[in-house]
Amino acid sequence: MMVVEDRDSELTQRDAAIESIATGLGVRAERGKKFAELTSLRVGGAIDWVLSPQTEEQAAKLVYELEQNGIAWRPLGSGSNVLADDGEHHYVIVSLKELKADPIFDANRVSISAGYSLPRLCVDAARQGLSGIEGLNGIPGTVGGALWMNAGAYGQEIGTVVETIRVARDGRVHEMPASEVQWNYRHTSFREGELLLGATLRLHPDDPNSIAERMEKAKSQRMTTQPHGTRSAGCFFKNAPSSPIGTGKMIDDLGMKGTRRGGAVVSPKHANFIVTEGEDAKAADALALAEEIRERVKREHGIDLEYEVELWSSK
Ligand SMILES: Cc1cc2nc3c(=O)[nH]c(=O)nc-3n(C[C@H](O)[C@H](O)[C@H](O)COP(=O)(O)OP(=O)(O)OC[C@H]3O[C@@H](n4cnc5c(N)ncnc54)[C@H](O)[C@@H]3O)c2cc1C
């Protein structure tokens, strides 16, 4: 009983500190949200606080003050690559979705904040006659989310066009060269606790019509091979470097398309997509199904599939 009371009073003190920090910086603070509202899989439990800074400077100060007060936080963009469990998540979500000032184009370069929509940026760049990211058009996340995991599609990866990146350091916006970051397959050397605020991309000029054509081609390829209008987080697992067969094909060959666990289903269209269905779908359903896939692949192919989706625990 004593432990519960101590925890309650700790949370009350923390909540007062969060309120005061948010008010002081003029940052919108919301309570009572769930991951089910903030992620594309539409599942996941309650979040204590969602704080939404609107400028890079405000965001840098915000996370600095949270850290100074020992308050745990995590960044979230569009939530299109996160599976958060069904428990109560006792930390602050710093939502980057309001950090979405218009891109600034300067010759071949574009400076962009972390919360800007990646598909929108691809369209903007194409209109400016700038190539290098048109293949990323169908990735439904923010620029920050794409930078965090080096998002890629159709032979392009965002890391290859980043010139500099802006991160939060000691309450300020710090700009560093992209060469200080390791850009690997769906992974970078950014560490947890690093807040990405924006980047300058260096693109190359091309005919706007040719860029638009390539963008359309990638889009229609996506439409024919991936489920649309469904609740998913894209590919659940990475392709295994040791296997010449893509993970989707491997899962398909095991006959798992359409396999259901509660409100989670292996997409009949693309076996590396887990989709959720219905009001009662739980994160636990998606996780149970994902683990079943991993076990089958391990048993049949001896491969340990690595998650591409991020699993967030409330524990
Ligand atoms: C239908 C569909 C298709 C997809 N296709 C692809 C594809 O072709 N290629 C591909 O690479 N991905 C794909 N994805 C996955 C996903 O869209 C990408 O990973 C995207 O880049 C995630 O961006 P986000 O803003 O949604 O990030 P979130 O899901 O919000 O966050 C993902 C991770 O990034 C971190 N993060 C987000 N913003 C920041 C920031 N500003 N600073 C620090 N950390 C941050 C979060 O903390 C989290 O760890 C697809 C997803 C869906 C639903």
SSE topology:
Layout: H1 2-25, E1 28-34, H2 35-38, E2 46-52, H3 56-68, E3 73-76, E4 82-84, E5 89-95, E6 104-106, E7 109-113, H4 118-127, E8 130-131, H5 143-149, E9 152-153, E10 156-157, E11 162-169, E12 172-177, E13 183-184, E14 187-188, E15 196-202, E16 204-205, H6 208-225, H7 247-253, E17 260-261, E18 264-266, E19 274-276, H8 283-301, E20 310-312
Parallel strand pairs: 2-5, 3-5, 4-20
Antiparallel strand pairs: 1-2, 6-7, 7-15, 8-16, 9-10, 11-12, 11-15, 13-14, 17-18, 18-19
What would you note in describing this structure?
This protein has 315 residues and is an alpha+beta fold. It folds into 3 domains: 2-95, Uridine Diphospho-n-acetylenolpyruvylglucosamine Reductase, domain 2 (2-Layer Sandwich); 104-224, Uridine Diphospho-n-acetylenolpyruvylglucosamine Reductase, domain 3, CATH 3.30.465.10; 230-312, UDP-N-acetylenolpyruvoylglucosamine reductase, C-terminal domain (Uridine Diphospho-n-acetylenolpyruvylglucosamine Reductase, domain 1). Helices cover 32% and strands 25% of the residues. The chain contains 8 helices and 20 strands. The two termini are 20 Å apart. It binds flavin-adenine dinucleotide. Flavin-adenine dinucleotide binds next to strand 3, helix 5 and strand 9.
